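Below is one protein, fold included:
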Amino acid sequence: METPGLVVHGESAPFSTALRSLVNNPLYSDVRFVVGQERQEVFAHRCLLACRCNFFQRLLGPEPGPAVPSPVVLSTVPADAFLAVLEFLYTNRVKLCRHSVSPSGRGLWGGRGWAEGPEKFPSTPATAPLQVLEVLTAAVEYGLEELRQLCLEFVVKVLDVELVCEALQVAVTFGLGPLQERCIAFIEAHSQEAFRTRGFLELSAPALLPLLRSDKLCVDEAELVLAARSWARVGAAVLERPVAEVAAPVVRELRLALLAPAELSALEEQNRREPLIPMEQIVEAWKCHALRRGDAARGAPCRRRRGTLPREHHRFLDLPFK
C-alpha cells in the first residue's frame, strides 16, 4: 500500500521577502502603470496581479498585446495607496496607520497596526505605513474583499475623533453600512470634538444628513447651528456657490424651536446678513414659541437631542428626548 504523501512547509519569511522585493521592481516586470495625479511610474508583474485580483485580470487581459495600453494609466488612486495594494497582492500583508504618513511630513503619526492575511511575516515592509482609509478606498474599487475587510476591522479598532468624519465619508460614498453605523455612534458620543475637525467640514451633504437627524448627538442646538454654518461656508468656498445653496440639503434638520427666543432673534439677525436658513423655517420655530406647542408648525422638529441644554420653554414641547 502506497504511503500517503506529506505536505511540508519551508520558512515563510524568506518567501515573503523575495516577493516583497518584486514590488515596484522593473526586474522581470511585464506591465507598467502610471498612477495618481503625480503620475508616478510603477512596475508590476502580470501573472501575480491577474491570479490575485479579478480587477487586474480583466484590465490586463489573458496575454500582452495591443489591447492592453502601455503604460496602464490609473489616475484616480494615490500612488502610495496603489503601492500598498500591490504589496498586499504580493505578500498578503500591508502596514496601516490611522492618519496619513508621507516622506514630506504631511499628516500625523497615529496608532499603527498590521493588516495581514493568513500568514504573518516579521520582516520590514517595502512601503511606509499608509492611511487606512486610502487603502480601504483602493480595496473597494479593486474588489479586494479580504483587504477591504482587514481595513474595516482596523478602522473600527483605531477609530478616533480625527479619523471618524473621514471614515464616515468613505462609508457613505461606498455604501459600507456597518462602518457608517459605527462612525455615527462614535460621533454621537463625541459630538463637540468631532464637529471641530477638518474632516467634519469636508463631509458631503449625504454624509452630514444622518448626523443632523440623530437624537443622540451630545451637543446643544446652538452649537450645531454654528457647526452647520461653518460647514456650509467651507463648501461654498470650495464649490464657489452661495452658503445658503450649499446648506439647503441639510439645514431642515436643524431644530430651531429648541433655541430660546433671544437665541432665535440673534440667529434671525445673522441670517439676514448671511443667509443660511430659509426664513419659513425660522417662522416655524417662532410659531412653536408663540403657541407653546411642539407640534404647532408641521415640519418644525422640536425633539430634544441628548446634548440639548435645558431652556425654560422646553417644558411646553410635546416631544422630549427619548
The two ends are 74 Å apart (CA to CA). The beta strands are 31-35, 40-44, 72-74, 93-97, 112-116, 130-131.
